[in-house]
Structures are given as structure tokens and as C-alpha cells.
Amino acid sequence: MKRHSLQILSILFFLLCVSANSQENTSETYIIKDINIVGNKRTKNIVIKSELPFSEGSEINLDILEELIENAQNNLLNTSLFNTVNIDTQFFENNYLIFNVEVHERLFLWILPVFENEGRNFSDFLKFNDGSWYNYGIYAKHYNFRGRNEKISIRAITGYKDQLVFNYENPGRNNKSGWGFTYHWQENNQISYATVGDRLVFLKLKNRWAVNQNKIELNYFFRNNFYHYHRITTSFENIKISDSLFAVNPKFLPLEKQKSSQLVVTYNYKYDKRNLKFYPLTGNFVGASISGTGLGILSDYQGFFEAKFSLGIYRNLFKSFYWGTDFTLKGYSKKEIPYYFKAGFGYDDYLNGFEYKVIEGTFYSTVKNRLLFELIPRKDKSLKFIPAKQFKNFHYALYLSINADVGYVYNDLHLPYNKLPNSFLFGYGIGVELVTIYDKVLKLNYSLTNFGEHGIFIHFNLAM
After folding, report:
1. Which of 17, 74, 234, 430 is most buried, judged by most C-beta within 10 A?
2. What percent of the chain is helix, strand and coil (3-state, nearest 5)?
3. How would you class 8 by CB atoms within 10 Å of its CB: exposed for 0-12, middle for 13-18, buried for 19 or more?
4. Which tens digits make up the pLDDT trace of 214-273?
5. CA angle at residue 442 from 128 to 83, to 5 degrees?
6. What is the Cα–Cα distance from 76 to 88, expressed in whole angstroms?
7. Residue 9 CA to chain centroid, in angstroms?
8. Are residues 56 and 189 in the same domain?
9. Count of domains forming the chain
């Protein structure tokens, strides 16, 4: 009886192994014979192929074909070189496969007049602008110089600030590693020099500058496995401030001096597998950076370290509903940082409902959550009366958003004239968000905070 049972178990085990093996081999394997690319009038084929998760001569299983095509389309759209990307396949006998990639390129060369606001965000500008928070000038940029995804730009403006910026970025022949260079000169005759009541306080001078800045920056960057990005940045900056600015804030620059020069070295890593980087609906993001400022190199200033960690998770819950959360953690190695370096919250990062606030501190953490409902799914349109192909084809989508953000800023100095440091921050609200061509997003939100403040806030990105 025992022997008979062992025989039955052996037969069942054999059948399970055969069944599992047969399931693994149900998907046919095809060899990629060729990749045909059309529509790239300017962009080199090697730039496009470097974004594809497959290549000529490689083998693929049909069960992952749909995923490969989706990843390839997202990779190409995230280069910001194309308005639309379509990929299909052709099958041939002897298990050969051809990919057909059709792209519609964007306009790469932009020469534009500049008329822009100088607020930390658009809502801040609308509320506090005294009539002088404008810049105007000219801006020229080529997003695909020589068809290799090189970027070169020059910007010259005056108004709130006088500024000249030149930037060049070369991604390398294989689009996997490259380098960049930036020169930045700027003078301001008005500048924020303190934070009181959790809002910036400004000094404004007539016919002379309050701050003069010169900076040279070198970058080296590389990526592997499509989604892992590394960047090393070394910059040297020289800053001078006027007697008037020094009088109102002697701690504006390091060592309580009117002149300062320092070396800044930064390493930045990110894992980015979002469907769209500028407006993600699905995917994941991880970012980490560390930088050292001063450190006694090329100057007497011993400086400080700064570290930041970011995590983003985005999911399609069901049908037209999407959920996303962004977690950020940032800190400094010293409890007091010269005001010029803007240690705190409200510059690059903000919480919904706190757009008007600047919260000083040497450590902060935020969690930003949003629930999206797709009011209008992406619509692709073609306007025949527009002659320029780069604008003839466009798209748009509209979303309803529910936002709930929390945060905390730690400040060991306990400044009595700012109440938001060392306090729990909670902002929430509802809004509508329009997503359209050339990575442009317009947001209109009604937000409230746990301090009883509320209002309508506008955000949009017009920067090219």
C-alpha cells in the first residue's frame, strides 16, 4: 500500500513538472529582424534606438511584447523630443519580427521674447507683486542640436534681475553618458534678506545692485538600465553684496562678510520609471542627493552638507481613477545656514495651501497625496489649418484632483517671529488640472490649511 502511494505521488510530481514546463514555453520566441524608424527629420536613429528596450538581433517572448512597446513609447516621450510616438509590429515566417516606430518631432529651436514673473510660484506672484516682479528679455534654446539630443541655450533678461545664462549639454554618442557646462551671471537690485511672519522681507535699492553673482558649473552624467540616472556636479560661485544689504542682514553670506566664494560638489541619483515624468499617472520614482558647500576648499568657509531623499508612487486604481504620493526628506548638517542658501521649505517644495509661506529650518519632511479622476481622457487632435507640423498635432487631458498634504519643518533656533517651524502642517483641497502639448500643465486648486487659511491657487509651467 505504501509503495503504491509513492508511485502515485511520483507520477503526479512528474505531471506537474511537465505541465509547468509546457506553460513556460507556451509563449513563442521571435527574433527582431529590423527596427524601422520614420518621422525623425532631425533626430538621429541612434538617439531613438538608445531609448528602446529591444534591439536588432535580440529575442523576445510574445507575452511581454505589449509591455515592451509601452515602455518604449514612454521612454521616447520622456525625452521631450516628440509630441507623439506610435509603435507597431510585423510578423514573418521563421519567427522573425520587425518593429515600426513612427515619431512626430517637436519644434526644437525656440527664439522667444521673455516676459515672466519672479514669484516663488504664480500664486505668490499674484498676491505680493508690487509691480516690479517682472523680467523681460530674450531666450534662445535648441533642444536637439545636431540631432543628437544635445541642448544649447542662452538667456538674457533684465527687470527684477539682470541675468545672463549660457548652457550646453551633450548626452554622448550612445545617449547613456555625457557632460554639460553652465555659466551664470546675475545682479539684483532687490532681494529677500529675512523671513518674518513666515513670509519673505525684501530690500529694494535704486540704480545699484544689492547682490552680484557669478557661477561656473560642470556636469557629468550617466545612466544604466534605462531608468537609473547619476549626475555629478561641480560648481564654483562668487557672490558680493552691497553695504545696504550687509547692514540689514550681516549673516546673509558665510563668515559675516560682504564677499564669498565657495566650491559646491553634488552627487544626484534617481530611479525614474514613471509613464510621464512631467505628469506621472503610473510608475515609481526614487531620488537621492548629497552636496557639500564650501568645506574649506578654495576658501576659508568650512561650509555644510545637504542631503535629500524623494520617493514617488503612482498607480491606476481602476478605470479613470489614479492615486499618487510623493515623500520628501531634506536636511542640513548645521543648525544655522547663511541666508543666501535659503535653508527651508517654500522655495522648490511647497504644500497645497501654503503657497504664500516660507518656513525656515534645517530639516523638513513632507508627504503629498493626490487622487485623480480623469474628466477628459487624453484626446489627440490634428488641426489642418496650422501649417507647422510641430503644432498641427496636439493633445490634451483634464483631471479632477483631491489633494491632502502633510509636512513638518524643524528649526532649532526657535525664532519667535515665525510660527510655522516646529509645527504640524496640513493642507488639503480640490482642483482641476489640464495637461497638454509640450509638457505643459495648468492647475487651479482651492486649498485649506490646519491654520484656518484658505484660497484659490494657480500653478502652471510655461518655462521652455
Report:
1. 74
2. 15, 55, 30
3. exposed
4. 999 999 999 888 899 999 999 999 999 999 999 999 999 999 999 999 999 999 999 999
5. 140
6. 14
7. 57
8. no
9. 2
